Amino acid sequence: MFNLGNRLNSDWGVRDNTIRASILSFRRIETAAGPNQGKPVFQFPYQDANTKQVLSTSYRDATTEASRWRAQLGIRYIFN
Known about the structure:
It contains 1 helix and 6 strands. By secondary structure, it is mainly β. It has a domain of about 35 residues. β4 and β5 form a beta hairpin.
């Protein structure tokens, strides 16, 4: 039996994937005159840019085979 925890409870044994590798995205160097001139400008990412939903988590559940339970059955026959 592989990933027995997931077989017992669907919330157990689930692996996580990162949503984004970096928390901030570089946009530009500020060119307007003022105290921030020459400084980098960063943007916090949205989870959904259309609805402007802020990224609230760094991980999501993986849908790979490693997050699912599976069983293996073997049969052995000896020829004499």
